[in-house]
Amino acid sequence: MNGELKIISGSANPSLSEAICDHLGSRLTPCLREMFSDGEIRIEIQDNVRGCDVFVVQPTCNPVNFNFMELCLMLDALKRASARRITAVIPYYGYARQDRKVSPRAPISAKLVADFLTVAGMQRMITIDLHAGQIQGFFNLPVDNIYAAPILLEELRHRKEDMVMVSPDAGGTERARAYAKRLGAGLAIVDKRRDAPNQAQAMNVIGEVSGKTCVVMDDMIDTAGTICQAAKVLMEHGAKEVIACATHPVLSGPAIDRLCAAPFSEVIVTNTLPVPEEKLKCGKIKVLSVAGLLAKCIHNVHTESSVSVLFV
Q: For binding Mg(2+), which residues are annotated in this chain's numbering (predicted)?
């Protein structure tokens, strides 16, 4: 055993941390999180963690750099407090889209973030639906990349018949195909041409969508440009209804306005990132909880049980 189980929350998504504790029958370990007048972050773990198995819950979402720095400071504090094992639970891994060099003098930011976390004291990572699975190889330590699929599939099973899973671009085809296979649904792909970062133009549909309920699958909704263009094209091709479904509701910039204006009947996401109340006012967004999934993963890691059972 790795000592007593301790759960610590960063400031990014405390409601998720509390829900995880509820599932585990545990309580959050108190942690002081303050800012000095010059903007520096002050962290202090306010309970004994010597010899404990500690899990720090902190998605690196907006404000990304603040939440990331806070996480690193918490990891360092735990390392210096002699925790037996330190696991970072990062439901949403920021910088994941910068996983390779896209121009001659560009950084590989996702790799640098991995190095920072490792040096700070992280000994294991739990995350959900990494944007690029190969990011696991950026770490020389165990990475459990679990999937929100069980939660999303359970929600989609109650939907109407004649369902078609749609990938909004060619890169997401494998994800949409996996969902289609589990649901016994059809598969379609929207051909997309990206003109500039955060701008996308959907051009054509590969597959039969006329008269169908189309579920547009993606790992995240950021500015919602891609997924809204896909919805528009699907309706033009005769879709009966269009539902958006994604794990990570980044929802930056004009995302909410675009989703409200798009022909979606519903937008299904999870709480890997916090969704403020003002972003729920359009009435289309349904948030599912991943707390139970993360709690099971934390329990299995703590008890040295198999994590792969969560992938069934």
A: 131, 169
The Cβ of residue 231 has, within 10 Å, a number of other Cβ atoms equal to 28
- pLDDT, residue 14, reads 97
DSSP state of 281: T
211 marked among binding-site residues: no
**108-113 mean pLDDT:** 97
Please state, in angstroms and rounded to a whole number, the distance separating the CA atoms of residues 281 and 267: 12
Which helix (H) or strand (E) segment is 259 a member of?
A: helix 255-261
Can you tell me which residue has the tokens 């209804």? 241
Q: How many CB atoms are closer than 10 A to CB 180? A: 21
Q: Is 224 annotated as a binding residue?
A: yes
Task: Kindly report the pTM of this predicted structure.
Answer: 0.93
Higher per-residue pLDDT: 3 or 312: 3
> Quick one: average pLDDT of 9-33?
97
Residue 202 has pLDDT above 70, yes or no: no
Indicate the average pLDDT of the chain.
93
Residue 239 labelled as part of a binding site: no
CA separation for the pair 69, 85 (Å, rounded): 20
Task: Answer yes or no: same fold for 5-147+291-311 and 149-288.
Answer: yes
196 beta partners: 199
Catalytic residues: 192
Residues 6+ apart with CB under 8 A from 204: 190, 191, 233
Q: At what angle do helices 14-24 and 291-302 cross, to 10 degrees?
A: 60
**What are the structural domain ranges in the chain?**
5-147+291-311, 149-288
Which CATH architecture describes the domain 5-147+291-311?
3-Layer(aba) Sandwich (3.40)
